[in-house]
């Protein structure tokens, strides 16, 4: 069964877009789906679509992949009205008006209502029967996006079912922070988290001029699709200079010592422009003496945290974990927002 894609006439009736932006050009979606090449998904695929908005992507995805179940999770009134009008019951696009922003919404639809019940799969492969997609392009959603990345690392929330791939539309400013490589001015704890917990690709971007915000290695590996503002449904009050990006997020099967790793990365990234030899004491009193004794390559101490890969942080975490006099990490109240300015 194929669904009708909402027309521009239908979309023009939406007067409130809640600060979000949506790609609505079917030709661009065709390019994105071709780039995704989802061959590993089984005939039992279930999809959870968070904040689908105008549902152009939702209908095109359903028509192409014909998943066993497709659930729209949309709480905003004008979009809810559109969904009810365009996809009346019974429709292969199931719906819930629960808000993805609230954690209890997922408990309701999975555990209580049993609307969507994914199977649990081992961590040996990307989950082949459950996919999460979403549009969190409102610029106020960055903290929510980072919470979801933390869930990947902690294997909770929707990630408790296995290594669940996510396709997320996000603000360009958030994408550039997440994808920043070591030595980049935008390198932060956010991009270390992305590197540690996921293999993430930059699939698409809405403004060719914004490509300069990404490192060459990211652009070479991802080769993102570029489209223009004329392909978008923009939210009221959203600046024409505000761009969005699509990320393909593939969780890793990591074995990190999460609590010690989080402590080390958080404290060192606050001093991301400071040489390691001078930043070590931030890990606790006596850390400089201890680490300089344990680190065999003295040139390593001249690196700054902003130049380090996640492998570097894993190495430092192992040293920290074996420190007999390390501080109580559960009494740590340092705020990662204290990171050094790159200006």
TrEMBL record:
InterPro entries in alphabetical order: KsgA/Erm, rRNA_Ade_diMease-like_C, SAM-dependent_MTases_sf
UniProt-listed Gene3D superfamilies: Ribosomal RNA adenine dimethylase-like, domain 2, Vaccinia Virus protein VP39
Keyword RNA-binding among record annotations: yes
Coarse class of the protein's main subcellular location: mitochondrion
EC number: 2.1.1.-
Top EC category: transferase
Keywords attached to this entry: Methyltransferase, RNA-binding, rRNA processing, S-adenosyl-L-methionine, Transferase
Cellular component terms (Gene Ontology): mitochondrial DNA-directed RNA polymerase complex; mitochondrial intermembrane space; mitochondrial matrix
Function of the protein: Mitochondrial transcription factor that confers selective promoter recognition on the core subunit of the yeast mitochondrial RNA polymerase. Interacts with DNA in a non-specific manner.
Record-stated family: Belongs to the class I-like SAM-binding methyltransferase superfamily. rRNA adenine N(6)-methyltransferase family.
Annotated protein name in UniProt: rRNA adenine N(6)-methyltransferase
Source organism per UniProt: Naumovozyma castellii (Yeast)
Origin organism lineage: Eukaryota, Fungi, Dikarya, Ascomycota, Saccharomycotina
Name of the coding gene: NCAS0C00910
